[in-house]
């Protein structure tokens, strides 16, 4: 299966023209058809009651839930198929096709070639061909579950089903067409005779659908927390919305601490005087429900002095919020990359922060009850408490590993330019050594006071990793140390640079584990010589930080994506 994925990766260019489709689906169907509301292999039509229906050839995964208007479980094939079965591709016309992490695009492939490509690949679940008359052209293929099919639309989606389904589906469609003719005639008569009745009924249906959606979402998340986390494992408080409103002074702008991919972050104070930080998921968030549930189920099970503490969450009405302990000194990037504030972080504090981050990662990789890969370690995700102790935060992109698992891959590469290792950015492979690479970048940034991404030097076009490597091979590593430091331990600084370069080596197997890193930082034992780092050259790029995802340039309720361009 790995070979098949790489063939597709090489053959297709990444879809970059889907943002307009995303906006259309959101605007036409409103909040009722939010992402994954109907689950897998179902279509959503906000004008219908019920809102969700299974695609032809599929049935509700949980009929009892669908009877209760809880659709998030989605649908499953009525007749399962495997690679040796005879299949057909069933046309679902008048839809807005989904945009998912396994959607790939090539604008030069014809309609027939598009079908052939999908039929030859057993993992291909559906294909679509864009209409050149509408200013678009090309072939789209999906390789995982189809999530978020919208009706009505102007596109045709061809879904793989068992050939034995065809006769039954054609008979069903013929019956539906006859019924629809009668319904249309009756509806026109009703509209002519009683327009006001139609208006009132439609308004009530929409109100009810909105209520069902809200209650379904709240129930779904609460069930997820209970079932996924386990009551005995989770020390998590569920806060009432009114409590958070009061604590933040109704989300006053004066209490806003900043804004991230998740949404705005507010400072709050409970009635007993406890200070909190509230991350409020916004509708236009680059992150979504997947990241929200990820943080709830992961951080609530973790207890370490170098990890931020999740106090609880709030899931009520249209709100999803995470409540953390308040960090009065904000994040590491607030100090380290600011010429004036960086003076506050003397060498003793910087060395302490480097060691604390290492111990936090070691806990995630080895000592916690779960083996966790953070996948988005960066300066802005390291918070500082009142004593400047570092605490790793933002576990929305984190993944857990089984005890015997060493690496995994993904079609959705999510992270931040400048911190991602080559094997992850290019091939989607991630492991504990991915976090080690990000840590190495962070160490070099802390020592130098400079960002890796956007780093500039009058003598060359290397990034910070390339600059550190150049100084190393020229035996001038001490020149990397931040010149705003009044004094520092040359032994500790050079050892940090050495460890940092070992962590950012091109090949993941050559990077040390975090347990080895902790020992390296706390001892004087001889260290191996580093090899050339990965991503050590790059074009001059804007310094603004950007999180990236490999499968396109669009944003939805649960998916945040930006085109990645490995360098």
Automatic annotation (TrEMBL):
Keyword Mitochondrion attached: no
First and last residue of the signal peptide: 1-20
GO biological process: recognition of pollen
The keyword 4Fe-4S belongs to this UniProt entry's keyword annotation: no
Reactions it catalyzes: L-seryl-[protein] + ATP = O-phospho-L-seryl-[protein] + ADP + H(+); L-threonyl-[protein] + ATP = O-phospho-L-threonyl-[protein] + ADP + H(+)
Polar residues composition-biased segments: 556-567
Catalytic activity, EC: 2.7.11.1
Superkingdom, natural source: Eukaryota
Residue span, Apple domain: 83-162
InterPro entries referenced in this protein's UniProt entry, alphabetically: Kinase-like_dom_sf, Pan_app, Prot_kinase_dom, S-locus_recpt_kinase_C, S_locus_glycoprot_dom, Ser-Thr/Tyr_kinase_cat_dom, Ser/Thr_kinase_AS
Biased composition (Low complexity): 544-555
Region (Disordered): 525-567
Membrane spanning residue stretches: 182-201
GO molecular function, one term: ATP binding
Protein kinase domain span: 251-527
GO CC annotation: plasma membrane
Keywords, ordered alphabetically: ATP-binding, Disulfide bond, Glycoprotein, Kinase, Membrane, Nucleotide-binding, Serine/threonine-protein kinase, Signal, Transferase, Transmembrane, Transmembrane helix
Protein name: non-specific serine/threonine protein kinase
């Amino acid at each position: 299966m790995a070979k098949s994925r790489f063939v597709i990766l090489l053959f297709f260019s990444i879809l970059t023209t889907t943002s307009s489709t995303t906006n259309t689906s959101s605007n036409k169907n409103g909040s009722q058809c939010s992402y994954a509301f109907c689950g897998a292999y179902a279509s959503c039509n906000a004008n219908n009651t019920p809102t969700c229906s299974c695609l032809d050839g599929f049935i509700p995964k949980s009929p009892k839930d669908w009877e209760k208007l809880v659709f998030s479980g989605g649908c499953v094939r009525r007749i399962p198929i495997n690679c040796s079965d005879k299949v057909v591709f069933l046309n679902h016309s008048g839809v807005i096709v989904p945009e998912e992490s396994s959607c790939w695009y090539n604008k030069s492939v014809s309609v027939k070639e598009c079908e052939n490509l999908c039929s030859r690949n057993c993992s291909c679940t559906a294909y679509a061909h864009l209409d050149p008359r509408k200013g678009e052209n090309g072939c789209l293929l999906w390789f995982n579950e189809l999530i978020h099919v919208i009706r009505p639309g102007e596109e045709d989606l061809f879904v793989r089903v068992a050939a034995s389904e065809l006769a039954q589906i054609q008979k069903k469609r013929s019956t539906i067409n006859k019924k629809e003719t009668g319904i249309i005639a009756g509806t026109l008569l009703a509209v002519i005779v009683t327009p006001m009745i139609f208006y009132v009924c439609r308004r009530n249906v929409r109100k009810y659908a909105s209520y069902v959606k809200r209650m379904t979402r709240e129930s779904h998340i609460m069930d997820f927390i209970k079932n996924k986390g386990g009551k005995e494992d989770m020390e998590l408080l569920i806060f009432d919305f009114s409590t958070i409103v009061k604590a933040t002074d109704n989300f006053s702008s004066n209490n806003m601490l900043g804004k991230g991919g998740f949404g705005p972050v507010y400072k709050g104070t409970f009635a007993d005087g406890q200070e909190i930080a509230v991350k409020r998921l916004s509708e236009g968030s680059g992150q979504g429900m997947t990241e929200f549930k990820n943080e709830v189920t992961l951080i609530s099970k973790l207890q370490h002095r170098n990890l931020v503490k999740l106090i609880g969450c709030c899931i009520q009405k249209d709100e999803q919020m995470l409540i953390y302990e308040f960090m009065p000194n904000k994040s590491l990037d607030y100090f380290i990359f600011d010429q004036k504030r960086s003076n506050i972080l003397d060498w003793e504090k910087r060395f302490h922060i480097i060691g604390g981050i290492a111990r936090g990662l070691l806990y995630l990789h080895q000592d916690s009850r779960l083996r966790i890969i953070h996948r988005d370690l960066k300066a802005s995700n390291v918070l500082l408490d009142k004593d400047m102790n570092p605490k790793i935060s933002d576990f929305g992109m984190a993944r857990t590993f089984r005890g015997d698992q060493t690496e995994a891959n993904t079609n959705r590469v999510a992270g931040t330019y400048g911190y991602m290792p080559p094997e992850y950015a290019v091939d989607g492979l991630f492991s504990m050594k991915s976090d080690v690479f990000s840590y190495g970048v962070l160490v070099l940034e802390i020592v130098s006071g400079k960002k890796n991404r956007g780093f500039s030097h009058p003598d060359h076009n290397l990034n910070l990793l390339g600059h550190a490597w150049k100084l190393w091979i020229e035996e001038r590593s001490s020149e990397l140390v931040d010149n705003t430091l009044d004094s520092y331990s040359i032994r500790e600084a050079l050892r940090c640079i050495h460890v940092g370069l070992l962590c950012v080596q091109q090949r993941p197997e050559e990077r040390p584990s975090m347990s080895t890193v902790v020992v390296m930082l706390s001892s004087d034992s001889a260290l191996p010589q580093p090899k050339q780092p990965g991503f050590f050259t790059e074009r001059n790029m804007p310094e603004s930080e950007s999180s990236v995802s490999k499968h396109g340039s669009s944003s939805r309720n649960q998916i945040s994506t930006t085109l990645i361009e490995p360098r």
